[in-house]
Design goal:
alpha/beta, Rossmann fold, 6-stranded mixed β-sheet, 41% helix, 19% strand, globular
């Protein structure tokens, strides 16, 4: 199994608190869901691919910050290489599936699991037979680490 891991609002624990803040504030205060990383490690997938609409200018800093704070790194990371800061997450991720992910890992149905915060991206993943899960912040669903995406999307 290959896990497609969303960054903002999924791995980043405090995205909501950082939204709209100046870049320097965000850089000093971004934190990650270590419980989610622990689950990923236990799953021992073939690969964890962080797939994010965050632009490539942030890639080096983001990966270094994740490593610094958690001691972990994804196996592969795909940041928004389109240079289009206004591209919708689901549009970028569908493009990246075709241009990066499928050429590298193949496209057999059932091979991927998307851990994703965006319902529109779940719909894209569903088109390709990718199951979606959402990581909830503890204040939204105490005691719940993840939940399957709306089953109607995958029928």
């Amino acid at each position: 199994m290959i896990v497609l891991l969303d960054l903002n609002y999924t791995l980043v624990a405090n995205s909501k608190d950082l939204s709209g803040k100046p870049l320097e504030f965000r850089k000093k205060n971004e934190h990650y869901r270590e419980w989610l990383i622990a689950i990923l490690k236990q799953m021992a997938p073939e690969a964890v691919v962080m797939l994010t609409v965050r632009t490539v200018e942030w890639e080096q800093w983001t990966l270094a910050r994740i490593k610094q704070l958690t001691g972990w790194q994804p196996d592969h990371a795909v940041f928004n290489y389109t240079r289009d800061g206004s591209i919708r997450p689901e549009q970028f991720k569908e493009q990246a599936l075709h241009e990066v992910i499928f050429p590298r890992y193949g496209n057999p149905a059932g091979q991927y699991l998307g851990v994703e915060s965006n319902l529109d991206t779940w719909k894209v993943y569903a088109k390709y037979g990718i199951t979606g899960l959402k990581a909830f912040p503890s204040y939204e669903a105490p005691g719940v680490a993840y939940e399957p995406a709306d089953r109607r999307l995958f029928s």
